[in-house]
Write a structure and sequence with these properties.
Blueprint (H helix, E strand, L loop, with lengths): L4 E6 L3 E3 L6 E2 L4 E3 L7 E3 L22 E2 L6 H8 L2 H21 L23 H16 L29 H10 L16 H4 L2 H14 E2 L3 E10 L7 E3 L7 E10 L2 E7 L10 E3 L32 E6 L6 E2 L3 H10 L6 E4 L6 H9 L3 E6 L7 H10 L10 E6 L6 E6 L5 E4 L9 E2 L1
Parallel strand pairs: 3-14, 8-15, 15-16, 19-20
Antiparallel strand pairs: 1-13, 2-3, 2-12, 4-5, 6-7, 8-10, 9-10, 10-11, 16-19, 16-20, 17-18, 18-20
């Protein structure tokens, strides 16, 4: 028997730009680092529990690699096609011509000098940019103390790169291209707070790489969502500092990955009020500020039907379902999964994201989830207390004993294995490892 649809009220501060049915509320979350919009769940442990966990079954599906290009060069050009490189040639030559005409060497308008490398500029070509990319990759896998060392010849007791690159490009030309290469049309930037310029610069190539990846493979069922860092120490508002990371300073991205392949990603914006996927709800006209002064404009009129918008969102859903408003960082998980080819996925996350509400939301979107969880993400109080007591060796668990305690709606399972384990776990799916939250 089909349950009757009923209206549900949701308190929401913002909407998820990648999902029409997802909402953002930061009430039960904490800022991860000062100056950064990343947030983690913050809920008190709950006394309520269920007794009959209903796992969400996700049939296992392996990653399928499709027919690959015939040779390595064709595969390389699948991700960096000649049409894209030709546009880089156009943008780069146009940019340098503008600098030379203006008598400056950069966007900061520093004056060109007699000894400036830029005076030796010759228009670049697609062939030259492919060589430049090849050298850049080679430098990345063959480390030297300085970049210039890659152009030095080996001497006795002084080994240098095995493959000489000086016959393909001089050091000065490499540096000139490295400084002035443009992947974007500098005349078409928009000063948009919703999408910073630094990301506009690479967005066309970024989107192409993501689509090119899933053209060559069909994603499997099991994937992970996590944060990643691109090393960058220049001056930019989008630079993020994340302590205790191998790369602690740079541009942060949110990634959906599988077997070492990055399938989709979203640029992180540390100053965005509701994170990289949040769109703030507009206030009703009756609640917006008005000009002060005399006359009809200063009189507060009675709100009409259009203005009578409550500070809740009404959603029609199946009886028994609960629509969750997630925090802005959790909302990235929903956004990334929606960017993937449509299918059923089992999503693995860490304790930055995990909470029963996120796993319920993923379940309602047709996906399972498993992840590590902190005691303050809304897990059962008995497990949180056992975790605290375990530090003193008084958890009450037998060695390697596993306990599974579902949420009150039996949609998310909370697992713990004690003694001396470091985290609780959640899951909504039947694939559950000990010490996990499952749904």
């Amino acid at each position: 028997m089909t349950s009757q649809s009923v209206p549900i009220e949701i308190s929401a501060e913002a909407l998820n730009a990648y999902d029409d049915s997802s909402f953002i509320n930061e009430d039960n979350s904490l800022q991860e680092h000062e100056g950064d919009s990343t947030r983690r769940p913050a809920f008190l442990p709950t006394e309520d529990r269920g007794f009959d966990f209903q796992p969400f079954e996700v049939p296992r599906r392996e990653l399928i690699i499709k027919q690959l290009p015939q040779n390595p060069l064709s595969l390389f050009q699948h991700f960096i096609p000649i049409s894209l490189v030709n546009s880089w040639v156009k943008y780069t030559n146009g940019w340098v011509n503008r600098l030379l005409q203006s008598g400056v060497i950069d966007s900061q308008e520093h004056e060109i000098t007699e000894k400036s490398r830029l005076r030796a500029w010759k228009p670049t070509t697609a062939a030259e940019l492919y060589i430049w990319l090849g050298i850049l990759i080679y430098i990345g896998v063959h480390g030297e103390i300085s970049v210039e060392d890659h152009w030095k010849t080996p001497q006795l007791e002084d080994q240098r790169p095995k493959h000489s690159i000086i016959k393909f490009m001089t050091y000065d030309r490499f540096q000139l291209l490295h400084r002035h290469l443009r992947l974007f049309d500098h005349t078409k930037f928009t000063d948009d707070d919703d999408f910073p310029i630094v990301f506009q610069c690479v967005e066309r190539w970024s989107q192409h790489i993501q689509l090119a990846t899933t053209e060559l493979c069909d994603p499997g069922s099991h994937l992970a969502v996590d944060e990643g860092m691109i090393r960058y120490t220049g001056r930019n508002k989008q630079v993020t500092y994340v302590p205790n990371k191998p790369i602690d300073t740079g541009l942060k991205v949110w990634i959906a990955a599988q077997l070492g392949l990055f399938m989709r990603w979203i640029w992180h914006q540390p100053g965005a009020k509701y994170g990289p996927v949040g769109v703030e709800r507009k206030k009703p006209a009756s609640q917006r500020g008005r000009r002060k002064g005399k006359g009809r404009g200063s009189q507060r009129r009675a709100p009409n039907e259009v203005d009578e918008v409550k500070e809740v969102i009404h959603i029609i859903t199946e009886a028994g379902d609960k629509i969750m408003a997630l925090n802005s960082t959790q909302s990235v998980v929903i956004a990334l999964i929606n960017l993937l080819p449509q299918s059923t996925y089992h999503v693995f996350v860490d304790n930055l994201f995990s909470s029963p509400d996120l796993f319920r939301s993923l379940r309602q979107h047709g996906h399972g989830a498993t992840g590590t969880a902190r005691p303050n993400c809304g897990i059962y109080k008995g497990l949180a207390d056992a975790k605290k007591a375990d530090k003193a060796g008084k958890s009450g668990f037998q060695f390697n004993e596993i306990k599974v305690i579902p949420t009150a709606d039996n949609q998310v399972g909370r697992l713990d294995i004690l003694p001396n384990n470091s985290a609780n776990n959640l899951s909504s799916s039947s694939l559950g490892q000990p010490d996990r939250l499952e749904g």
